[in-house]
Every structure is written in C-alpha cells, then in structure tokens.
From TrEMBL:
Protein name per Swiss-Prot or TrEMBL: DNA polymerase I
Classification via InterPro entries: 3'-5'_exonuclease_dom, 5-3_exonucl_a-hlix_arch_N, 5-3_exonuclease, 5-3_exonuclease_C_sf, DNA-dir_DNA_pol_A_CS, DNA-dir_DNA_pol_A_palm_dom, DNA/RNA_pol_sf, DNA_polI_H3TH
Lineage per the UniProt record: Bacteria, Pseudomonadati, Pseudomonadota, Alphaproteobacteria, Sphingomonadales
GO biological process: DNA-templated DNA replication; double-strand break repair
Function: In addition to polymerase activity, this DNA polymerase exhibits 3'-5' and 5'-3' exonuclease activity.
Source organism of this protein record: Sphingobium chungbukense
Keywords: DNA damage, DNA repair, DNA replication, DNA-binding, DNA-directed DNA polymerase, Exonuclease, Hydrolase, Nuclease, Nucleotidyltransferase, Transferase
SMART domains according to UniProt: 35EXOc, 53EXOc, HhH2, POLAc
Amino acid sequence: MPQNHLYLVDGSGYIFRAYHQLPPLTNKHGQPVGAVYGYTTMLWKLADELGKAEGPTHLAVILDKGSHTFRNDMYDQYKANRPPAPEDLVPQFPMIRDATRAFSLPCIEEAGFEADDIIASYTKAAVAAGWHVTIVSSDKDLMQLIQPGVDMYDTMKNERRGADYVMTKFGVQPEQLGDVLALMGDSVDNVPGIPGIGPKTAAKLISEYGNLEAALEAAPSMKKSKMQENLIAHADMARLSRRLVALHDAMDLPEPLDDLTLKGIPLEPLQAFLEHHGFKSLLARAGAPAAAVAVATAAAAVTQATPPAAPVHEEEPPIDRSLYETVVTDEALDRWIAAAHAEGLVAVDTETDMLDCVSCALVGVSLAVGPNAACYIPVGHGGRDMFAEKPDQLPLALVLAKLKPLLEDDSVLKIGQNLKYDITVLRRHGIEITPYDDTIVMSFDLDAGQSLAGHGMDEAARVHLNHTCISFKDVCGTGKSQISFAEVPLDKATEYAAEDADVTLRLWKLFKTRVAHEGATRVYELVDRPLVSVIAKMEHEGIKVDREALSRLSAEFTAGIAALETEIHGLAGQPFAIGSTQQLGAILFEKMGYKGGKKGKSGAYSTDVTILEQLKAQGAEIAGKILDWRQLSKLKSTYTDALQAQINRDTSRVHTSYSLSGAQTGRLSSTDPNLQNIPIRTEVGRQIRHAFVAEPGNVILAADYSQIELRLAAHMADVPALKEAFANGEDIHAATAQQLFGEVNRDTRGRAKTINFAILYGISRWGLAGRLEISADEAQDMISRYYERFPGISLYITDTIEKARERGYTETLFGRKTWFPRIKASVQHERQGAERAAINAPIQGTSADIIKRAMARMGPALAAEGLHDVKMLLQVHDELVFELPEGDVEQASAIIRRVMAGAAEPIVKLSVPLGVEIGHGPSWGAAH
DNA sequence: ACCCTCACG
DNA sequence: GACGTACGTGAGGGTA
C-alpha cells in the first residue's frame, strides 16, 4: 500500500501571485480572468501529478474567508495598511471557487482563520497520521511547516522546496524561521518586527542565540549599537510579532482527512468551465490532464492526451517578407480569418489614403497571426475614382462583412500599434474592435522616459527586434512627389503593410510578458488601455469652431499688427523684421543702446518677455509695443489663422489628435491642432475660446479639477495642514499665506501661490528668488519656513529623489513608471534637472492617471442614466469639455462631478477630497 | 534642423 | 566658487 500524500493548495496566495505575474486576460463575457486562468493552469499541473510517485493521493484547496481573524484581535494594526484588492481582481475571487469545483476538488475555508492556519492544522494532523504532505505555495510564512515528510511546491517556478531551501534563503532551520520572521517584521502584513533589522541580521541573531527569546535576553550584554538599542527598546514588539507570525495548528478540521481522497477528475464539469471562460484552447491544444482523461476514456474513446505544454520560450524566426500573402480571393480571406480564430489573437493594421483618419478612405487591412504569418488585404487600391483602372482586389463591402465578426469577437484579441487610428477608421465602417491591446501604449507604460526606447513602431522594431522596417517614405516617397498608399503596387504594399502587422505581433509578445513581470499591469489595464477607444471617440467627434468669428479676429489682429509695426519702426528709426530675435536684439541693444546682456552659448541677445518687461519698466516705449505686437502675431498665426485651416471639410469640426505616449509623465498631448493650449489668460486671447461653440440647441460644458496637483501633493507628501485646508474647502493659497506670512493680503497670497507651484516643480532658492524678485537668501528662508510649516514636503522630495536614483524611475499612485536615466548624470545641471522632473512626475502623473480613469468611466456612467447625447470632446490635463443638449445640463453635471471626484477609487483612497468646478454656456469661453 | 518665443495645464 | 535659474507640452517664425 503506497503512502498517503496530502497536497494542500494555498489558493488565496496563488491568486494574488497569478494576478501580478500573468497577462490580464478577459474572457468572452468581458470579465477579467487573468488570475483565474493562472489558477486553472496550476490545478491542471497538479492534476497531472496524480498517479506519479510524488503525486497526491489526497488534495484540498485552502482559501481565506473574510478578513477579520484572531490576529486582528491580537494586534489591530495587523494587515492594516494593505491596499484593497485591485478592482479587476475582486470579481475573480468567486471564480476561483468555480474553478476548484470544475476540477471536482474539495475547497476549504473557515471564518476567523487564515488559509495558513488551516494548512498548518491539516499538516499537523496528516503528519500525525504518518502521511506525507506537500504544501503548494511560495509563502514564506508557510515555510515554517517544512519538516521531514513535509515539503513545499512552487508551481510557477516548478520547484520543490525543503529545509535546505529555507537554509539558503533565511540561513536557519524551518523551525527557527518564525523567530527570524518576527525580528524582520513584514511590511505587507504590517507585522512590526524590530526597526532596522532585516533578513540578514535576523538570521544572524537567531543562528547565534538559537531562538528569539534568547536573543532578546542577551541584548543588554551585546556590543553597543543602534541594533542593540532597538532590540531592547522594541522587545515587546518582537514578542507580539512572534505571536502574529506563528501558525495556529490546532483548529478542528472542517473536513476529516479521509474525505480529501482524490478519485479522478470527471471531464464534463471541467470542460464546461473551460468553455465558459473561453479557456477551451487549454483543453484543445494541450489535451486534458491525465486524471481527467482517465475518467473520460471509460465513456468515450479520446485521443491520446499529452501533458499541458510548459511555456517554452522559442526563438522566433527572423522577419521574411517573402512569406507574406496578398489576399485577393474569398477562400484566402476565409483561411486567414479562421487562422485568427484558431490562434485566439490577431495583429491588425489598416492602410488609408491619407493620415487624417476622419476623412481618409480605407485602402487595405493587414493581419498577422504568427511570426511571418501575415497577409495584406487590399480593398481600395487604384484610388477613389470609380472609373479608374484598378488592380484585382476583393470588394470593400465583402471584406468588411467578413472581418466584422472577427474584429468584434470577444474571444479573439486584436492587437494594434496606435490602435486609436484603426479604431476610428473601422468605426466609420460600422466595426467596433474589441477586445484589444495596443503596443504603443504597452511600450509607453513600460518605458516612458527611457531615452533609448521610442514607442513608434519603426523605432520599437529597431530597439526590441533588431529589425529595420520598410519606411513609409520608401513606399510612398516624400514631399511633392509623395503618392497615396492607394497608388502603391500590391506587391510593395503587401511587404510594407503585412510587415507592420507582423512586427506589431512580435512586439506584443515581448511587451505582454514584460507588462506582467514589470508591474505595469495596473496602469495598463486600469488607466491606459481602456482609454484608447475613448480617445478615438473624442477625436472622431471633434469640436465645432465658428469660422467667421475666427476670421473676424484675424482681420482685427492684422490691423493691430500693422499699426504696431509702423510705430515700432518709427521708434527704432528704421524698418526691420520684428519677428527676428536677431534683428530685434541688434536694434534694442546695439542701435538704441538699452542694457540687457547676451545670453548663453548661441551668443544671441535674449529678447523674451522678462527682458522686454524690464525694458518697459525702465521706460522703453518700444518694448511695450513689441510685446503687444508679439501677442497679436502669436494669436493670429498660431490660432485664428491656423485653426480655420484645421476645420475638417467633411464634418465642419476640428479634430485634434491626442498622443497617449506624448508626455513622459503620463499626460496626454494634443497635436494637429494642439487644443490644449488655446488662450485663456488674457482678455484678447480669450476671445479665441469663444469661437469654440456648440451646435444649436446644445451647450458646451467645462469641468475642471480644482488644484488637483496641490491636493495630490498634500496627500502624497502627507501634509496635515494642507490636507485640512482642502478638507475645509479653504482657499489654499490664502491658507499657505497665513501659514508662511501670518497674514493674508493680495501680496502674500500671490507669493504663497508662487511658492506652492515652486514646490510642485522642484524648487531651487535661485529660481524662487528670480520669481519673487527677492534675494536667494530670503528665498532660502522662505523655503525653510515652508518645510517647517508643512513637514512631509521635504521628506517627500528627498525620498522621491533617492528612490529615483536607486531604481531609475518614479511611480504614480497607480504604478505608472517614469524613467530618469539622467538622474545619475555626472554633469550637475543635467542631474539636477532630472531631479526636479522626478519630484514633479509622481504628482503630475497621478493627476493624469486620475483624469484618464474619469474619462474611461464617463461614457458608461452617462449612458447608465440614459444620457446618450452627452459628448465628451476635449481633455486639457485637468479639464474635460463636453457638448450636450441644454436640457441635460443639470443631470449631466451631477454625473460628471461624481465620476471625476471619485475617479481614483477604489484603487487609491485619497486623504483629500477632489474638487470639481463646472460651468456651461454657448461656447468654451462662456463655459468658464 | 535648430533655436527662440509663447500659448496652455 | 561658478554654474544657471521651476514641471510638462506643441506650434510658428526666423535662420543656417
């Protein structure tokens, strides 16, 4: 009779690990199932052990139930600083139980006890009965249970662990591990331990003195050191910690040992479960687990099962463009679509006849399902002219009809590089791409700030695949002789387009693994990926601009500019190009003899606002005129003229393009045109905002976060005085003025405001001195006072810089990384520049994360309350702009406010409220 | 292609 | 002791 062998599976521990290590999959019902999938493969692996020498004869999955256990009664801080489970993990907990049931395995949980205690109790009982035990977990606390006859098994690393593992990892025997853990403490579970003692020191003490109590008792006679003092001072904390890490092994077993006998795994419930979640590839590709088949073969003849394939990292074949196919027949198209279904994923790229995706025509679609397995489906070659001669290609309508089910199939992942473009193009043809991954966004979430990693495809291919893509220029030429993609011959078009899809798929494979392993899953899944289709919608929507209003302004500005020009030339005594800083510098500082030195390496005179304002203050009339001239020229060329040219001919609206990878901090950026820098600060400039209007019957609504970055700074640096001021709804700059100067008036409030911003940007006394027109010493005093009044700020600054230097990156509250390679530069000002950016990045980036989450939730929140005509049009970093029927304003305002104010939740709980200010009117200008 | 300047948060 | 003088963007005009 072979010996009984009980496997105890630490299900709760596993699911967290699977969540962080595995790609964030969703099933065909749109539910997140990455962790469930990982959990399922683990059970599968265990099922395959059945019948082997070291395999289980008995097995139980142990789960945590509820969060309050006897340890909380012992120490109310236990696990107190643990963040709530990620929102896409929560719905997976019940599915874990489904998965366990699908394998027909017993599942044990008990209120008041942690899974660890249940495992300890079963281990004790089984050992007493003379059984072998294997604990399936990688938890260090459970390693205390290792003893002869009891080992651990880490399925992810495929590693069995005994006493020697504990010895290499912690330097002690398993039975001494509890003492080591007690000294070390555990920041995740909030076990206090002894400050300053980590794994190394703890192990040294325990192996030297044998156990915790002996070490504590010996402390007074140890050599004097910080560690020794701490050992004495915190002895009670260590004793409490010892009790917290001890496993409770004497509970009544919820189910008797003998009930845990493994009998085999009926195939049917397992199959149903796998099919429900679309894990059927697991069954189909790898064969059922041996145990399941053993049961199934009795009923039906099943083909020889093979064990699930271990993930092998095979070298991909180099890119070979000769293997790409031009798809021009029904049969070929069907074959590619079937291949995509079989693979469960497909890289997609669309080719169009112009860059503007609102007006462009579809020219072709490329697909890739594996390395070099890529094709191009031409549909619009030969151009839009109905009568032009065209190459042989499938009709557009047919291709769209066949692609639609694939592109909308929940069980096939669509992969694209900068998908918002393709989403818009295909949405115009009635296709909603879902689900999707975007490699440009993945790249950004991994490598923002890494100077070597460009996120565009050509650069990404060079960096990550060591491959040079065919450039668009090579195919279409440049400048005047540039041709449209519709005119490119099919063979050349296929090489170019299919390569894009092929490269995208290869990049995706790399990034998918990295996202999971490098902690980018949170920000990718919870912030950026959902945003892609939202941004696509906003760009497609566009905003109405009153062309006549702009044209009137242009005319006004032209007249103003001309008048000023005459005056300036008169004052200068000669005509010159006012826009030329070179000529202007010569006039001001050489001919007219004003003071104001040369600047920097170029040796040119600086003529920027600060200089001109100084001259003006000295009484130079020309300086004021030049400032006015510059303002009007800027407004005319950058706004009133340029915006008119940007009004789309087909839609009569302006469609900006947002870059999701534009700003290193995680902010969006806006181009063609940039709608994030429309004037507002001066009255003249503000008129331009009034030209952004709503359709008749509609209004423009603008919703702003008020002081979001300062609020986040107060939260992140933990500044009680600032937090309190925000909680009380005070004027924050006035409150700062009160703290710093003891009185509030226009002057002190203004200075306080400057200092508040200086803090967000990484202050230097020189910089502050310049801004406030005080001496560096006075500025230094002011900074010191700020740190004194707002403790936490200086700690935040030093901490952030230190961490950035250590790890190379900073992180937002949502885990967005920004890399700072120059933080180790030997050139001082380069390094200091990186330090200032590092101070700012977590704050600016968290603010960006929050508004992005608000944007992703806005559509569903509005729709849920029946508001289908509210359109989100623009994002300006802390502001969202909507167009909506006048009658919806009240209801929409409440929803918008709620969504924006609560956008951090539940992932991040802020200790300050987020304020939202909302206004509306016939134009953007009027909405403020 | 680069610099300067200036519009925004 | 000199250095250079706040974070993050994009666009237009002048110059080389």
